[in-house]
Amino acid sequence: MRPVARRYMQEFLPAMAAYVVVLFLSTWALRHVEATALRVLLALAPAVPVAAAARAVLRFVRGSDELDRKILLEAFALAALVLTLGSFSLGLLVMADVIPMRADMALLWILPVYCLLYGAFAAIARRRYA
To answer: What is the pLDDT of residues 114-130, one digit of tens each?
Structure first.
């Protein structure tokens, strides 16, 4: 494994493990807290480890060679395009009362879907350039 990939795993995996723990704890705590300021902190707490994971991704991209950067950029762009077109289409369907959906659920799924799309497009692009 290349050093940049090793560093990425050492930064990304603990951040995602922390995200799972913080998400579980903040969700549990939100059921027992009434104070608005504390609810804001608890609700936003899972964003901290996600930001650490995003930092790991950025450091990985910056540490990659030109071909890997091209592959990653293509994957990021395609994932963004598919996600934005898909969420726009979903919004139109919800607005037309074709699909019932809560806005909070739609918003919470944006990041996981983007990550899934990015991974798929990165694998496709890597195969194409290999």
So the answer is: 999 999 999 999 999 87
